[in-house]
């Protein structure tokens, strides 16, 4: 046997001896240790405060601006119109913030809808007092707006589920409502110009003798200081100083140019009419949807009794 062959056999024997477990190890074969990385301990989930979400904070600011506009509404048309318009414009910003920060909530949707309905209703109440002859029209618009949105929201929650948004309307149920809610551009234009129309009427109550003949009354004649009556008395009869901010605002109010109020009212009138048509469609559709649910519940109850 050559020396090379003897060396190979000796090496194989040494290798087999190293694989045999020693008595101290109780027959266990040692395996190399592996470095196991420790998994990080789970962090506690941060608790979110829905009331402090960005879109809801914008909603609160809308409420504050609305209250401020109502405070200035009887005597300060310019200040009221600016505050009211900013509040309406923020209506589009809160939806964008909800999508940007991924903070869409049911509370935010309800807050937005309630703010819209209450804001418009308060302005229509003022118009009812400014033009008592047309009060029934403005009161009817308030009822239609409230009833339409309430029934639509209730039908969506009861038939579509608690997590269903009132803006998610199936085209098979109503093509008009689908187009109205599906396009953010259409929704914004309709809502914005609807408010612009009523703001224009509000400014016309201070500036148009055609609609408010009492504006032509001489200032020497006594006039009512009732909020909503555009025939305001002389500033000196309401304010101690005729040069105070309130007196000057009243003087400017009675000198408003009616051109721009007439222009924005005429331009926005068709959109306002379409918005009221959508409210009627929404009211009828919600009523039919809830009636279908009632019939389905009655059928299930009858079938349960038969069984």
TrEMBL record:
One GO term (biological process): phosphatidylinositol biosynthetic process
Biased composition (Low complexity): 10-19
Positions of region (Disordered): 1-45
Protein name (Swiss-Prot/TrEMBL): CDP-diacylglycerol--inositol 3-phosphatidyltransferase
Keyword entries, A-Z: Lipid metabolism, Membrane, Phospholipid metabolism, Transferase, Transmembrane, Transmembrane helix
Main location class: membrane
Membrane topology label: Multi-pass membrane protein
